[in-house]
Amino acid sequence: MKLETEILQADHGGYGRACAILVSGGLVSLPTETVYGLGGDARNDRAVARIFEAKGRPQFNPLIVHVPSAEVAKTYVEWSHEAEVLASAFWPGAMTLVLPIRSDAGISPLVSAGLSTLAIRVPAHPVAQELLEQFGGPVAAPSANPSGRISPTTAAHVLAGLNGRIEAVLDGGACDVGLESTIIGLADDAILLRPGGVPAEVIEAALQMKLRHHAEGAQLSAPGQMTSHYAPGAAVRLNAEVRMTGELMIGFGDVDCDLNLSAASDLTEAAANLFHHLHALDAKGATGIAVSPIPEVGLGLAINDRLRRAAAPRD
Ligand code: TXA
Ligand code: MG
Asked: How far is the CA of 293 from the centre of ligand 1 (A)?
């Protein structure tokens, strides 16, 4: 999809246009104090699928959700004493908390790639704050760079990588911190998942405890690859042409199936439906789930990566 990417100023008209784009499921790059984010409505499956498409990511790495305040954050995640301590000390700011997602959160499962946790942050940048206030919903945003490229700290960097792939960039000048947020996992014991804008020692001082550090050399950026990652209870069989006895089928294209990722063979629609369909058939108590072949192009790479993990032998 080739778009005319608009450059919006941080003024009345610019915020209004940015909100209208987000409401319609479009993508807006927004400045934060760390780096520019590539934002879409976190409740909109299709908008979230388009974030992955625009970045050209071959995998569904989970995304950070941005909200205007800790009060709003509490409506999406299970809050804890540690979360309160860290949010009071460092929000708004360059720190992201990973907490169990609330069952009533209404966030697209694609945002956290099917995990039961959600990464959430209250950015301090006044332009991000104003946009989040005016939009009034959660904004999923990875750094606004194509996969494998460095994170953007100006609107010009964003355009250099994503011009024609997103609806707009909201220009808020250069980012102060220039380094991504520090990610703290609080779903189990406190763990430093990614070093970033707020030094780990400062966070440890606030918590009055040491953080567990993510194993040296482990791939920080890809919790989607951890064995704890969501996998359906049912055995998953890929590249299936038809259902076998006892199986339910997830189709793609013009096929006979129980749930279709996209009857029109649209990969963005398929990505938007992927986790919903896996969960739905799993909840039906299927012993086996057959899945149609998905073309290995564009978002098909990420879809197939996720399906291969779901189909892999369990430990
Ligand atoms: O400063 C930042 O954090 C920027 C701005 C835009 O907020 N965002 C950013 O997003 O750096 P991204 O997508 O480039 O990195 C998000 C990181 C990834 O390493 C991802 O694996 C991790 O957050 N992450 C997201 N959800 C997670 C979860 N539920 N559990 C563990 N890690 C998670
Ligand atoms: Mg990034």
From this structure: 30
